[in-house]
Design a protein that fits this description.
Bound molecules: pyridoxal-5'-phosphate
CATH class: Alpha Beta
Order of helices and strands: HEHEHEHEHEHEHEHEH
CATH topology: TIM Barrel
Largest sheet: 8 strands, parallel
Radius of gyration: 17 Å
Number of helices: 9
Distance between the termini: 17 Å
Helix content: 40-55%
CATH superfamily: Alanine racemase
Amino acid sequence: MPLSSDIAAARLSVLDRIATAAREASRDPADVTLVAVSKQQPDERIEAMLAAGQRVFGENRVQEAALRWSHRRHGLELRLIGPLQTNKVREAMALFDVIETVDRERLARSIAAEVARGARAPRLFVQVNIGEEPQKAGVSPAAADALINLCRNLDLTVEGLMCIPPDDAPPEPYFNALSAIAGRNGVPRLSMGMSGDYEAAVRCGATSVRVGSALFGARAPR
Ligand SMILES: *Cc1c(COP(=O)(O)O)cnc(C)c1O
């Protein structure tokens, strides 16, 4: 179990590597947000990360996130980075500031319907299955433009695109492909890069990186 000083040190080290990668790409390090992925992490580590000053967290399950964060929600930014079922949209919108996993028309319509009912509009990212892998979520690259347009026609602002590249290949071509889709659609932000590839992602233009194990240590199995 890492000590809280280890967690603070891990955070500083990741922030430092992000800054170095940004400068290598002639980017401003302040333009990259570190999203600490807290799924499956024990409470001591969460407390240590909060004490270290981290305020932006990512979770991939609505129920688990509600248990972890509802009682200490204030002052934080929470991002949903896992698949969202339409029957959990209302709960997800009540908890999360950002939903990074809009990947199909039905989900976009369900979010828009909640907004029409008076719910606060979340910040949205469209998830793209950039390696076209059958086991991964996300809209196919060929259908991404249409989904972005559909969101806009529903009066939903698409703040960014998100992807998880294949884990058995160099990630840069996939990061660059996501950046190209964002560029041609005028979408300003890119959520890409995890513990193993966040520096490469920053060099390819990521505006946020989702880092779990490199910050908190290995996750407990579910
Ligand atoms: C778990 C998860 C991460 C973090 O993974 P690490 O390799 O531990 O950094 C990032 N993005 C998504 C979508 C995840 O589910």
